[in-house]
């Protein structure tokens, strides 16, 4: 036996329509229900607007046929981003190396100052 059930999503205010089928769960020994989404109710007209399961919009067959070229474009974009990130990392490493050299120079200057101060005492 199946029936039509309306459920309101409190987050969005959308009313979804489901086909609910009751069945007996042998393990738990109690009735259960399976729901299959039919669509959502249009607030202006009150009619049921079909959805493609779980509230997702239906895909166009035209856009899915070009998925190979889309994948190639995404790979190319990722490779470009990867190259840019590698260049940024190389520049960062160079800056770190230069800063490490400056720190070594400053340590030697500090040591010289400490030696001069000790000799003056």
Q: What's a quick, concise take on this entry?
A:
The chain has 121 residues and is α+β, with helices and mostly antiparallel strands. 49% of the residues lie in helices and 27% in strands.
Describe this structure in words.
The protein contains two helices and four strands. It has helices spanning 61-65, 67-120, and strands at 2-8, 15-25, 30-41, 48-50. Strands 1-2-3-4 form a four-stranded antiparallel beta sheet, with no helix packed on it. A hairpin with a 6-residue loop joins strand 3 (30-41) and strand 4. The mean pLDDT is 86.
Largest sheet: 4 strands, antiparallel
Number-wise, the strands total 4
Please list the strands of the largest sheet in the order they lie side by side.
Answer: 1-2-3-4
Low-confidence sequence ranges? none
What would the average pLDDT be, to the nearest integer? 86
> Tell me, what's the shape?
elongated
Note the total helix count.
Answer: 2
**Helix-strand pattern, N to C?**
EEEEHH
First-last Cα distance? 102 Å
Classify the secondary structure makeup into a structural class: alpha+beta
What share of the residues does DSSP label as strand, in percent? Answer: 25-35%
Kindly report the oligomeric state of this protein: single chain
Radius of gyration: 34 Å
